[in-house]
Amino acid sequence: MRLSTIGYLGSSFALSVEGTALKPKPNTCHKLVSLFGNKVSLPSSNEYALIAPENWSETAQLTPTCLVEPTSAQEVAQILAVLVKDGTQFAVRGGGHMPVPRAANIDKGVLISLDEMNTMQLAQNNRIAQLGPGLRWHEVYEWISAFGLGVSGGRYAPVGVPGYLLGGGINFFGSRFGWSSNMVSNYEIVLANSTIVNANAQTNSDLFWALKGGSSNYGIVTRFDIKTFPLGQVYGGLTIFPPQNLDDLVNAAASFSVPGGGSDDVDASYNPSWQINVATGGLTLLSWCLHVGSDPSPAAFANFTRIPTLSTTNQVWANIANATAASNTDAFGGRTQRQLFWSSGLQPDRESVFLANKTFFEEIAKTPQLKTVRGLTLTATPQMLSKAWLNAARASGGDPMDLEPGNGIIVFLIGSSWEDAADDAIVNEFSKRCAAAIEKKSKAKGLDYPFIYINDAGPSQKPFELYGKGKSIKKMKTIRDRYDPQQVFQKLLPGGFKLG
To answer: Transmembrane region positions (predicted)?
Structure first.
């Protein structure tokens, strides 16, 4: 086990977090400046103005007291030691794509930005890619494609590596490998007491398991070692369909979700969405897909390719970097809108897709005040995870989600994008109510699947309570108490989803 201990341990560590009032000391940022110089940015600096608002959603663009950009695990450990000693609250940001307001930013605290920790290297005869937590997936794909390799990473190029992997990770290759986190072979992580350890199947194996979906509850991961696999040509891209073909797209999605409908092709990933501009009623229908290999017309996508298109980038690409480049745009990674996710779990059944789609539009119709929300678009996305996916997850050694394979699961995402903070409550309430209606109606028909995908969860949802049908959380808390007995990552890191 690699172990490095930084100062500020012992009794002072315990005293700093035991009290109920965890008020930051005003000189914490000055201490960090004295230790790290220009790696620390204060609100008066140009660097702060550039770096602080890098979160994808405006709802998460907050005003930290200062921000610090470490370049190594050792610096992360030193920073954490200062914060713990001073009792200063903080946030940690990788890609900053989670729209939950304080998940990757903070007001009146220290923001640790991992942007400068962006190293990439191959190890173990190219079987392992070692990735820094400051990377976005487009950087990883551009680098690794040059070696004729792939990794099980994000479907959208601007998404960051760390939060995505710590939330499990829905990916293009799940029917072969499971969640993206199931392909992680080792985590280098800074614990609450500023020790740097490795967590893998042999060392700290309980922590290794917990990190495969445990989010930010255990420490700050400073390197992800993820398994590679040979990957050359792929077919796929972004398609826009005519708005009058909504029923065709919903039908195709419903067919794809069931065994034999396409989602059980281990080389296939299809992500359809329908989006409504609430003020005008205008629809945008789109899909994002990938199929491994050079087949220009995969049978798994037949129900979708029968639908007329307005535009498409679908073709056979030389590598995954080229195939996913279309998502490295403001449409997927722009930082000028307020964003919100809300998630539900459904059984993989045609009726599940129809029920969720009908409920989505019914709830919009029941909420006329949504028309007053400037720039509001609402999106429904059924994400199909096959039986093979969930079997692969278990075969890899398992994870806290611990989903029963059955015939798979549909992760149904409700996405919102709007302009003004004054409308936050309206949009949040609609999303919460819509997800609740889908859950209620699906339960009544035996079509619910009790699971909330944490990377698509709404701010008040409780994903951990549903992991393993409620059986995982006790084990997760036990592991948390072993590695963070003072609950630093519950108290001093207040944002994100907590174990409680």
So the answer is: none
CATH number, domain with residue 125? 3.30.465.10
Cα(395)–Cα(409) distance, integer angstroms: 17
The verdict on residue 386 lying in a domain is yes
Token pair for 428: 């949040």
The pair of three-digit structure tokens given for residue 439, joined into one six-digit string: 């859950």
Say which residues have a Cβ less than 8 Å from residue 301's Cβ, sequence separation at least 6. Answer: 262, 268, 270, 289, 291
The strand pairing partners of 276, in sequence order, are 283, 378
Give 491's contacts (C-beta < 8 A, 6+ positions apart). 17, 22
Chain segment 180-217, per-residue pLDDT in tens:
999 999 999 999 999 999 999 999 999 999 999 999 99
pTM of the model: 0.94
Higher pLDDT, residue 331 or 243: 243
Instruction: Decide if 185 is inside a domain.
Output: yes
Asked if residue 62 and residue 101 are part of one domain, the reply reads yes
Reply yes or no on whether the pLDDT at 13 is more than 70: no
Q: Are residues 184 and 274 in the same domain?
A: no
Same domain, 382 and 298: yes
4 within some domain: no
% of residues, the chain, pLDDT over 70: 95
Q: Does 18 share its domain with 153?
A: no
Instruction: Give per-residue pLDDT as tens, 83-93.
Output: 999 999 999 99
Domain housing 75: 11-116
Residue with token string 């722009």 = 334
CATH assignment of the domain containing 255: 3.40.462.20
Are 127 and 219 part of one and the same domain?
A: yes
Q: Using one digit for the tens of pLDDT, what is the confidence trace for 474-500?
A: 999 999 999 999 999 999 999 999 999
Q: Quick one: pLDDT band at residue 160, thresholds 50, 70, 90?
A: very high
Question: Is residue 495 in a domain?
Answer: no
Handedness of CA 352, 355, 357, 363 (dihedral sign): negative
What is the tally of structural domains in the chain?
3
Taking 80 as the threshold, does the pLDDT of residue 21 lie above it? no
Listing DSSP states for 424-438 in one string gives HHHHHHHHHHHHHHH
Looking at the fold, whether 94 and 131 belong to one and the same domain comes out as no
pLDDT value of position 410: 98
pLDDT tens profile 58-69: 999 999 999 999
